Every structure is written in structure tokens, then in C-alpha cells.
């Protein structure tokens, strides 16, 4: 067989996992807005890293789910929505709500500080999870 492109090689493990309606999938990431503001004043790069860690943790943990595979198959068409939680208490409360409704997610806890900084859902159809996230605004 002819050699495949790097893009094809990356997609290969997920090729059989595509779910119908994959274009409607979205990964929600909820980041604490207070991290970048005083008194915490984390550097922008450190804040962005929290979102990256959470998103990757959610995708890795739920990598066998058909929606995760279908989402990764979208490549450059993947859709992510980054929302803002005002503080750690709001993030922890959201995590509890998601747990109660059996919504797969991962909370990123920064170490050694042991501080919950970000939460990411595995990719979901928007209509399945949006109701639990609508009180959070887009991160600005």
C-alpha cells in the first residue's frame, strides 16, 4: 500500500470509532477566570496550560468513547468552547453537578498547590450538556 500522510496516520486509530453526527460534537472547557486576575495574577501561559491539561486529560481518559474518536477525526474542524468559572468554588460545584448527571469530565488540579483550576468535558453533542453550562460565559 502507498505510504499515508501524517494526518492519515494520526487519524488511523480512530477511524472505526466515528459516530454519526460527529460535526455536532463540542468539547467544553471551563477555566477559572480569577487565576489571571489579582490577587492570584497567574501568567497567561500558566492559565492557558491549565486548560490544555484539562482538555487532554478528558480526551485521554475517555479515549475509548465513540464520541471522542469521532471528535478527533474532525481534525481542524474540532470545536472547543472555553467558558469561565468565577472561582474554585464555582468550578467544584459544576463538577458535582456534572457527576450527578453522569456527564464525563475531568477536573485539573494544579500541584503542588492542590488547587482545582480547570474542568473539561469529553466531547459531547452540544444539546446533551449545554443546559449544565449555560450559566457560564465565554472566557474573555
UniProtKB/TrEMBL annotation:
Residue span of the signal peptide, if any?
none
SUPFAM superfamilies recorded: Peptidyl-tRNA hydrolase II
Q: Which domain of life is it from?
A: Eukaryota
The record's section on Gene3D superfamilies has: Bit1
What EC number(s) does its UniProt record assign?
A: 3.1.1.29
Catalytic reactions of this protein = an N-acyl-L-alpha-aminoacyl-tRNA + H2O = an N-acyl-L-amino acid + a tRNA + H(+)
| Hydrolase listed as a keyword | yes
Q: Please provide the record's keywords in A-Z order.
A: Hydrolase
A Gene Ontology molecular function term for this protein is: peptidyl-tRNA hydrolase activity
Q: Does the entry feature the keyword Hydrolase, yes or no? A: yes
EC class of this enzyme? hydrolase
The name this protein goes by in its record: peptidyl-tRNA hydrolase
Amino acid at each position: 500500500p502507498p505510504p499515508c500522510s501524517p494526518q492519515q496516520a494520526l487519524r488511523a486509530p480512530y477511524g472505526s470509532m466515528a459516530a454519526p453526527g460527529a460535526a455536532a460534537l463540542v468539547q467544553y472547557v471551563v477555566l477559572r477566570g480569577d487565576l489571571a486576575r489579582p490577587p492570584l495574577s497567574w501568567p497567561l501561559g500558566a492559565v492557558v496550560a491549565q486548560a490544555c491539561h484539562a482538555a487532554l486529560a478528558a480526551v485521554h481518559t475517555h479515549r475509548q468513547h465513540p464520541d471522542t474518536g469521532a471528535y478527533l477525526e474532525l481534525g481542524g474542524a474540532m470545536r472547543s468552547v472555553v467558558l469561565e468559572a468565577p472561582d474554585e468554588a464555582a468550578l467544584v460545584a459544576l463538577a458535582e453537578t456534572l457527576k450527578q448527571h453522569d456527564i464525563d469530565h475531568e477536573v485539573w488540579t494544579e500541584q503542588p498547590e492542590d488547587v482545582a483550576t480547570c474542568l473539561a468535558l469529553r466531547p459531547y453533542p452540544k444539546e446533551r450538556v449545554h443546559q449544565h453550562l449555560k450559566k457560564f460565559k465565554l472566557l474573555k
